[in-house]
Amino acid sequence: MSGAEAERDSQRAKVYAAELFVRTLFDRAAETGTRSVDFFGTALTLPPEARFGSVVAVQRYVDDVMALAPVRRRWPDAAQLAVRARRGATAAHYETRGAAGVIAVPDQPGVDWALRELVVLHEIAHHLCPARPPHGPEFVATFGELAEMAMGPELGYVLRVVFAKEGVR
């Protein structure tokens, strides 16, 4: 396999589609005022999802997640992780700067899709999983494990089911 083939992020669209589905579940639950949802024929209560009003609030959340005992035990050598504002409004992303990681999130009116817990957990998972391709099986496993640690087993279950439904490995 060539370097280009090894790096090809073939699951990216499927991972994003699965996450959009899960975010929509949370949005619909919020619209109805109840966290109980019908999830493929099963009654399920979703955990509350944090929403953030600023980059400073996202940084506090990231610090709290990285300080969770299960996260520290699972990823004891995780480097420092900072959060910065991103000018573009269409994406959040993860980058490295030296040994540290940086999450960049849009911080402007109308980008509330990025200032939410599920998106931030996705970016933290990139920090904890440097495997290539960026949205490959190792990342998917890391994201699911981290989401379960941060938000509870219900979210871990939802992600596993939706990833499977979307054909994510």
Task: Tell me the number of structural domains.
Answer: 1
Amount of helix: 40-55%
User: What share of residues are in beta strands?
Assistant: 15-25%
Number of helices: 7
In angstroms, what separates the terminal alpha carbons?
A: 19 Å
Strand/helix succession: HHEEHHEEEHHH
Rg measurement, Å: 16 Å
Structure, described:
The chain is α+β, with helices and mostly antiparallel strands and 169 residues long. The protein has one domain. Helices cover 50% and strands 15% of the residues. The chain has seven helices and five strands; from the N terminus they run ααββααβββααα. The strands form two sheets. A three-stranded mixed β-sheet has the order 3-5-4. A two-stranded antiparallel sheet has the order 1-2. A hairpin with a 2-residue loop joins strand 1 (36-39) and strand 2. The longest helix has 21 residues, at 12-32. It is globular, with a radius of gyration of 16 Å. The model is unreliable at 1-6 (pLDDT under 50).
